[in-house]
Amino acid sequence: MFTDDVWAHTAKLLRAIHEHPFNVALGDGSLDRERFAFYIVQDARYLESFAKALATAAVRADDPEEAAFWARSAHDAIAAERTLHEGYIEEYGLTAADLSGVRTSPSALGYSSWLQANALSAPYPVLAAAVLPCFWVYQDVGEALVSRSSATHPYRAWIATYADPAFAEAVATARRITDRLADAADEQVRAAMKAAFVQATEYEWLFWDSAWRLEGWPTRQWV
Ligand SMILES: Cc1ncc(C[n+]2csc(CCO)c2C)c(N)n1
């Protein structure tokens, strides 16, 4: 199956994601609030773009079941964004003025823009492959983190959202859709699907890494 193959192909990268200092610190609860808050703000921005990419997939799907799945996922991404805003952002005491003062990081902007470009101009099967790591990598990381985190863990509520059984079901559906599309695709489209899956997984690593580095814009000093 296509998704088994690309998952195996990204095994080293996935290990690097699991072992990234951000995720290690998130797992043992030692992650500092500044990095977690930075991550949450960037993720809230990312989720807005991701929801639009999913909504576009719903428009472009040639099968009504698939359209319904993407539309539901777009809704869920917006709901996740709201939860972040109402929950963690409030908990961290961030005001609307604080939030508007945080610039979207180069990596978060890169990932979001790349997804939107795929949504608008890549073949539909390539779009499915581009959004799959977002579902799958998170569920994989979430499951590993939950098994390591205690009930009193400071970030447990966040981790739990990604280890939810309903979320595992969404991963299975996204994989089924991508496999069906890969089966029907020609060699060229399949190669583009694989490249998109790998690129998105690289962006997933970069997203955590940029939060760890509190990545800003070095050019800010001149504007
Ligand atoms: C950078 C980044 N990548 C993936 C997710 C996970 N995620 C967000 S919405 C959604 C699907 C619909 O609920 C998934 C899997 C995230 N939060 N941030």
Identify the CATH architecture: Up-down Bundle
Any idea of the CATH class? Mainly Alpha
Largest sheet: none
* Shape label: globular
How far is it from the N-terminal to the C-terminal residue, by CA?
Answer: 50 Å
The overall pLDDT average reads 92
The tally of domains stands at 1
Reading the helices and strands in chain order gives HHHHHHHHHHH
In total, the number of strands is 0
In short:
This protein is mainly α and 223 residues long. It is built from 11 helices and no strands.
Structure description:
- This protein has 223 residues and is mainly α.
- The chain has a single domain (2-215), classed as Heme Oxygenase, Chain A.
- It has helices at 2-9, 11-18, 21-28, 33-60, 64-91, 96-101, 106-121, 124-148, 156-162, 165-184, 187-212.
- It is globular, with a radius of gyration of 17 Å.
- The N and C termini lie far apart (50 Å).
- Bound molecules: the ligand Cc1ncc(C[n+]2csc(CCO)c2C)c(N)n1.
- The ligand Cc1ncc(C[n+]2csc(CCO)c2C)c(N)n1 binds next to α4, α5, α8 and α11.
- Residues 43, 46-47, 50, 73, 76-77, 80, 134-135, 138, 204, 207 line the site of the ligand Cc1ncc(C[n+]2csc(CCO)c2C)c(N)n1.
